[in-house]
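dumping this here before i forget
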Amino acid sequence: MPFRLGGVLVLCVWAAACNWDVLIVSPGAVVVGGEPTLALHPVSPFPQTVPIPSCPSVQPATARFEIVLSNGRVDHDLDRIDVSFADRNGSAGSSLSFTSSEIVRDFGSTTVASGRSRTIVIVLGVGCGTMTSGTIVVHVRLHDVSGKSVMLSDRIAVS
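structure:
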């Protein structure tokens, strides 16, 4: 452990010399800079087969993944999350959208606190009228206390 700690200290000193912000957001993770970031991570193998599909209400497969938001030096609030799937031929598939009130209802809060990370797990049905392999694209819109908006996007392959 002393080596990792030493590495973080060296990074902190180096970043401070460059006048950058360094935030510890979880054990072993360091965020350099002031803007929020977005990353997508699969939670289970992509895609998982649904036992008895009946399109369009129950799609033949689901993709379960995490939206991980890591915040910079000020608090941000989520305004909107848009999730969409396109199969490997580019045909549009399922999509989900969450407004700020739906984020509060489904996930408890819109806040991503400064220097912290926030994880939201999404389960998206895939495969009705499209293949079950393709790409999930996520767009997240946030704003800080001054009202400045930030739009973040990421994608993850489903195979």
